[in-house]
Design goal:
The complex is a heterodimer of chains A (1101) and B (279).
Chain A: H1 3-9, H2 13-16, H3 20-24, H4 29-45, H5 49-70, H6 81-88, H7 92-106, H8 110-138, H9 144-147, E1 174-179, E2 181-186, H10 194-199, E3 205-215, E4 226-233, E5 238-242, E6 247-251, H11 254-257, H12 266-274, H13 289-296, E7 302-309, H14 320-335, E8 344-345, H15 348-364, E9 381-385, E10 406-409, H16 417-426, E11 427-431, H17 439-451, H18 454-476, H19 479-497, H20 504-517, E12 521-526, E13 534-539, H21 544-562, E14 573-579, E15 585-589, H22 598-609, H23 616-631, H24 638-646, H25 651-666, H26 671-683, E16 699-700, E17 708-709, H27 716-727, E18 731-736, E19 756-760, E20 763-766, H28 767-782, E21 787-792, H29 797-807, E22 813-817, E23 822-823, H30 829-838, H31 846-866, H32 877-880, E24 881-882, H33 889-895, H34 898-905, E25 911-916, H35 926-935, E26 939-945, E27 953-958, E28 961-966, H36 973-976, E29 981-990, H37 991-997, H38 1008-1019, E30 1025-1035, E31 1039-1049, E32 1063-1067, H39 1070-1073, H40 1082-1087, H41 1090-1096
Parallel strand pairs in A: 5-7, 17-32, 18-21, 18-25, 21-22, 26-32
Antiparallel strand pairs in A: 1-4, 1-15, 2-3, 3-9, 3-14, 4-7, 5-6, 8-15, 9-10, 11-13, 11-14, 12-13, 16-27, 19-20, 23-24, 25-29, 26-29, 27-28, 30-31
Helix pairs in contact in A: 1-5, 4-5, 5-8, 6-7, 7-8, 12-14, 12-15, 14-15, 18-19, 20-21, 22-24, 27-35
Chain B: E1 5-10, E2 22-24, E3 30-32, H1 33-43, E4 48-53, H2 58-64, E5 72-76, H3 83-88, H4 91-94, E6 99-103, E7 106-110, H5 116-127, E8 130-138, E9 146-152, E10 159-167, H6 171-177, E11 187-197, H7 200-211, H8 220-230, E12 233-237, E13 240-244, H9 250-260, H10 265-277
The chains are: A alpha+beta (1101), B alpha/beta (279).
Chain lengths: 1101, 279
Amino acid sequence: MSRLIDVITSSRPEQRNLPLDQVCGPLSIDQLFEECHQLDQFRRQRENLYERVRALFFLYAIHRFHLPRRLAGKELGKIPYHGYEHLLNRRFPEAIDVFLHGQKSSGPSIAISSALGEAYHRLAFQTLADQVRRSVRTVRGNQWMFRTGHPADVPLRIRPELLKTGEHIAGYPVLRERTAVRMDFSHSGWSDIFFLGMDFPEGARVINASIDLAVRGRHQHPVPPIDCSLRVIDEPVLRLVSIDLDAKVDIESINEVFDFARDYLGLLKGAVIASGIIPPGMEGCGGRIEDVFSRMIGPGLGLEIVSRVNDIPKGSRLAVSTNLLGSLISVCMRATGQVSSLTGELAESDRRIVAARAILGEWIGGSGGGWQDSGGIWPGIKLIQGTVAGADDPEFGVSRGRLMPTHHVFTEQEVSPDTRRKLQDSLVLVHGGMAQNVGPILEMVTEKYLLRSENEWHARLDAIGLLDKMIEALNKGDIPSVGAATHRNFHEPLQAIIPWCSNAYTERLIAECKNRYGTKFQGFWMLGGMAGGGMGFIFDPSIRAEASDWLQEMMVSVKRSMEASVPFAMDPVVYDFAINDHGTFAELRIDGDVPQGYHPLMVPGWLRKGISALSPMVRAELERVGNAVREGGSESGLATRLMNRILPSTVKESRTSGRLDDLLLENGFDPIAHEQLREDVLSGRFGLSQNRLHSTVTIEDVRADEILDARTSVSNDVVAVGEAALEAGQVGVVTLAAGVGSRWTQGAGVVKALNPFCRMEGRWRSFLDVHVAKSQKTAAEFGKKPVHIVTTGYLTDAPIRAEIEQKFRNQNVFASKGASVGLRLIPTIRDLQFAWEEVAQQVLDQQKEKVRTSLRAALINWARSAGEGSDYRDNLPSQCMHPVGHWYEVPNMLRNGTLRTVLSAQPQLRYLMLHNIDTLGASLDPACLGLFIKSNSDLTFEVIGRRLEDRGGGLARVDGRIRLVEGLAMPREEEEFNLSWYNSLTTWIDIDRLLNRFALNRETLHDQKKVDAAVREFGRRMPTYITLKDVKKRWGNGQEDVFPVMQFEKLWGDMTALPDVHCQFIAVPTVRGQQLKDPAQLDGWLRDGSAAHVESLCNWK
Amino acid sequence: MRIRKAVITAAGEHHSSLPLQTLVDRQGEVRTALRLTLDDIVSAGIEEIAIIVRPGQSAPYLSAAGVHASRLVFFEQDNPRGYGDAILRTREFVGEEAFLHLVSDHLYLSKSELNCAAQLIQAASRHQCSVSAIQPTRENEVIYFGTVGGTPVAQHDDLYEVHTVIEKPTPTIAEQRLVVAGQRAGYYLCMFGMHVLTPGVMKLLKQSLDAATAGQSIDLSGSLNQLAQTERYLALEISGRRHNISYKYGLLLAQLALSLSGRDRDLILTELVNLLASR
């Protein structure tokens, strides 16, 4: 029997918890393939969720980490395109079958293993997601909602109390629900991920507290941050209002309730669906809201649901959105009699059904939270634990644990009022200002848990032990020990499991606290999935107040110093908090009191509509507002806020617009070329479909023997040539850093080169740190400091120059500023549709796909209303401008004089190695350099064997000429899968030969006019690509919208297409040529040895 | 256990005219709705019948009762405090005997040879305990009925041991507390409007009334739920259908059901087809 199957099925914990690496380490390649075969058969046959998923993760890990080491030299292989299509369409089992067939017919290779690893990985997560979804649907109390498919079937009725018209006001009473958010002490190593709780219920334990909040300096005292209301209205519509998102809608059709991304009200819609008011079974029924409400409430009546979050920004790690969802669901369920109490606290059984519905709502809305997240529904401090599934549970026989955990609320005997007070007197809660995506971290945790990586497993057990220590300390009222435990939890087990849960910013804050307060700083407290957003700092109560004020200032100043390199969504804030002893709490307001901010949002619309068009209830409401304004009502500043709404300010907009024009002027924007581009885009001469080469072009693969090869040992005489050049100081490095690396921060607009992404030799290091450290190593080895030029753009120039000045002053590092910039355009609908429909796309999970479809419809409306092809100006100036592609970065060095300066100072310089900022393995390797020098080429490009993730073109024989082809230019997408080599973009440049191609030389570099003319002339020969880039627009409290905007680019790889430029190509090892594009790659990069390889190339002294 | 007394509640807001509504029975004879019910329960062995009415409304019932008028005793519910209070008014009439209880606005049509009341009385007599008649009902209608949760009684297809009774639950609550093994998904056992109850229920109703705040109404389901915790209490799936004649078209549908199961079935079907064809 397979050893790995034995590990999966064993009932003995020591066998079951055996790390995969330990089992696979001694196996030969044949044994590994045999294990893969048996595991694949095993996962196909087993019904048990845990067994299937663990087998899938084993298969993924073997193909991702173990086989590539044993397949060195067998990088190349063809990944069948129809397998890739299956992958995109989420048909993972079919994709695996196709890849396995490919492996069998053409033999194993790293390429095929990369495809298999990805397919197994995706199938594993799909299996988990399917199981959670199934469990959510089968929770008792949720099932009926999937069977109710027509308005005539509506089984709910509004509570009669909500239909009693008030004596004091014209209208119906308001049901107000106020809910706390949750603050977790420890989640025992993210054990609140659904699958962990369902597989290892004994280890799934969380302590969290329900808390009220106040932003220090903005609010007077802590209150429940979530405030929702529901009332009957005299119009047959579903009115949804989000005060904090400044959005409202009157919904008349059932289908619109399921259109999540149409507006900012997706979460309210999710609550309406999950509460059963419009149950999920009604999706697509095409009925009218009026038909539902006439049965549920009465003819001609409707519902208004209002939500307000009290200034808590996104990324607070306090599960605001899940608790908001829970609060909305609770108010809807109270109103329809689905929970026992209309007002006051909820009973325990009611809390459980509300929490189950919140999980359902998260799934419906395409988001996701952990099972502890609805903790604000419960009161006080509680221990939430996974529970073993019993015979009555739908999970029984499928998973070991139940989907829903159990909550134990600590009594006053267990955690005394004095302890609670001491906690409030010690802990300073903050939002550090970073808003990050915690999703990749949760995936990494699940994966590591299932692989039982040794360190991770011990860390998990350690975290579970620490949670017990926290309970013990809470029992004793020993807050410093709580602080010590949360501090160690963050620094030891959590970072041992996922190093990326920390970051340079957080560690700087901790260090500052330690420096200033010494032992009076009692510990750091990570909240939720990762640090940087919501966090806690525990201080001695005697200094807490002072420390709160100091933290506010210190965080802002640290943020200022790092904001070019770290994605911040907002300025940091400090909260005051209080433990909430009620959980979610409702009251029936017969005085019609609605959440604050409702009237300023609604009244302008009512006034625009005209009094005669308003319903009697709205008219009465308007009169009340009028009276309140005249008499100085309870809402402070209502009159001012109303005036601000009715007469909006326009000053800010014009100022922004003016700054953008100045910046464009300063950065070499060419308005004539811009107008030409717009004309070309609108007329259809330029566009995504026009990027492609003509379909008659033949594209063939390039054999290994047609290019140079540095993957295996290179002869000593070639290496000696390279070494000699290095010793003579003839070689420099060009690091391309003009772009911001939009994928790295999802369009946040920070400088990727400066992002401290990884800890090396004990400190957080940026991409630029790594590249300069490699040059340092070359200097140490060959006795000459290589010149290191960092190319910059309008957005990256100042921060990079400052960094060079501060860190690398005497290290032969230069910045070369971009000399041109573009202005982004609103995309054409034609190009949006091409990108979404013609280009192969990853189909998302069922619910997420629905959300995406809805979002795309909204974006098409945006493009239409904003004007296709018009200038994109509705954002920060830096987000409206764009760099014009990396082809310009070498000519820029000629135009801005950087190369001239460098050559004047170091005339021996003959060669340059140009590389992307994210190609961390690129170094001044004497073997590659020697091969390049001996090849006598103008340019030599490095290529690597293609793996599944290496998309975007490659090395091909195009109509007989070997050249690089961009992915954008591929006539047919499937042709890329026939290409064995991927372009790393690392390029060796012979300076004099290149100047010669530009009709220049070292002397004419001093003639600016000649240089400009030469570059312009050369640029005309380079193809222009139209691309869509996702750009973030930030607004409100850390809210973000992402817009696809259009820009143009010229790309460096197209130099290989020019017949007069002599190009060569070198195959290099993957670790040298691979690129780090996405933070989700980091963990694999660390674990497969790539990080260690990069570190070995660096000299940190 | 011999059941010879019946309690009929008729003190609802619209109940005064209902007993006078006439229908054509299975044999083609015209009778009042009340008379049809009384015929059934008397043939099932009931000798004394108490009817709870609004003050001053006994006369129409008396005239609609026909030959059964002499068996009737009326209780007027002044200061009404709900359905449970109405039943409690007959406490002395019931005494220490088990009794049949039904509501006046329903018409019960049996599908078997035994009428609905007789089926229920037979089950109660055999098992010597309270039994409520029930009917599987789809979840979108449970909001209108008292609903029971329980377990099937071994060797019986139609009998359930009652654990829980909830008045007009939402499907959310029904799914959590009232799922009964053997029922189709989304179906619950809802009250049929007919019960045989032991006198213990009167004590429970009294306790409920005493515990209620001034002016608060009490229902029967709460006391039945308590009954299930204190003594054996069964639910019988009746072979028959109930028709609430107080609903819109309730009387028409009851008449159609009655006629389509009686002597004039062909005549009614022909008339219905004619009506449909001429539209």
